[in-house]
Write a structure and sequence with these properties.
With 537 residues, the chain is of the alpha+beta class. It has ten helices and 26 strands. It is globular.
Amino acid sequence: MATIVNMPRLSDTMEEGVVAKWLKNIGDKIEEGDIIAEIETDKATMEFESFHEGTLLYIGVKEGETSPVDVLLAIIGDEGEDISAILKQDDSSNETPTERSEEKETNLEKIPDANTTIPEGVQVITMPRLSDTMTDGTVASWLKKVNDNVEEGDILAEIETDKATMEFECFYEGVLLYIGVKEGETAPVDSLLAIIGPAGTDVSAIIKNGASTIKLVIDKPEEIIVKEEVEETKIATISKNDTGRIFASPLAKKIASDKGYDLAEIKGSGENGRIIKKDVENYTPLTSETKEVISTPNLTPIVSNFTIAGKENTMEHKNSQMRKAIAKSLGNSKFNAPHFYLNIEVDMGNAMASRKTINTIPDTKVSFNDMIVKACAMALQKHPQVNTSWTEENTLFHSHIHIGVAVAVDEGLLVPVVKYTNQLSLTQIGASVRNLASKAREKKIKVEEMQGSTFTVSNLGMFGIESFTSIINQPNSSILSVGAIIEKPVVQNGQIVIGNTMKLTLACDHRTVDGAIGAQFLQTLKTFIENPVTMLA
């Protein structure tokens, strides 16, 4: 059965798109996940992924042409299938066809069941695919309730993906008739999320059909309430009922837990005093001195003979989508790619002196990590075998050099990518890394800013770690682990002097990088780092 693919809304402000390039031709076979076109939006040129499989039967927007969002882009179906009726319908009306594509950003579609009639004006909203690796999502918070009016552009819900917690925007207007996934519940991509339509519309048939496709991965856990046995005067208005239960949105609870805040000390501004996201973000924790002044101390005489008493307690914390994705990705890499490790020690004396000189220039800030990233980019140019990716059929040699820089965030690890690193100066690399790292920590980084790396750098030196080994960030062939700069006795010109050294560990995929190639890469890298003037050209 033919599937209509419409021009997707690939950014929150996108109204129309330009097909920069078609990567598939009419008659080509399409697999789910294939990149079928490059589409230029108001923000960037992005790859458009197919969520269907079949044969490309029709192209509705030619290369270089501009088309509004939701206009017929292509048709995918069975080879030789007659699509004349679909094309005739598209020519006679500008309305969106009944059979909508599962578009990457909107994921708004009709339930594909010929026995279910969709009432006029009703739109079925499915769990969107908000990242390239997302397979299911958790509704952190609903910002609209059943029977609320919804306008196009309203934020319906906050959805936790494997990358971040993201706002989900509605592209229709009407009344929220049904919510299919409750707060705290997890559902696969394309499962029934909500229904929007005219007030009073009967959608029971859609619910009966659509709800059967939802497979909840994790039920909402029972809330654990720990009663403190310390009597203390609370200085904040507590959002709770007579039972002592604190009312807070799941996202507010999650942020408070990550930051180590006590919800009992946060005043809620939501409905009925409910604590919401902004309340936690705007909260300033009390200092120990403040608590001492406003609390009533319970002074107990000192007893010399005492018995240690306590209560064992284990609390379950649901794994976030990000942690699941990290576990899956690193597990696949470690168990599928044959890792081997090479170690080298670098003299950092010249690098330290050069950095000090560079940073005396006004408005200039270069870190040791920036110098290492630049050196890696230059070494990759000389050793292209390291700048590769393994597939079952081929080894992919990348002419471009995109270096990923591992960044620790509250929930795990993200790897923003500095594109075309070899073409950037030290100061440009530094500015790019700081900008991307800030976005990652604030959960504002875009999916495309974390894609396409050909090599990765992971630095734990700032934590005092002298050396460590990393798991390869596939599909990269290698990852460099950077340790701390250590002051210690070294031998120079036959004399023992105080020097500064740093240990580097290169993890390689033995399917693409042999030991000798990895060793040569490290030798070149060492030369660049120990002679920073070579990186200033």
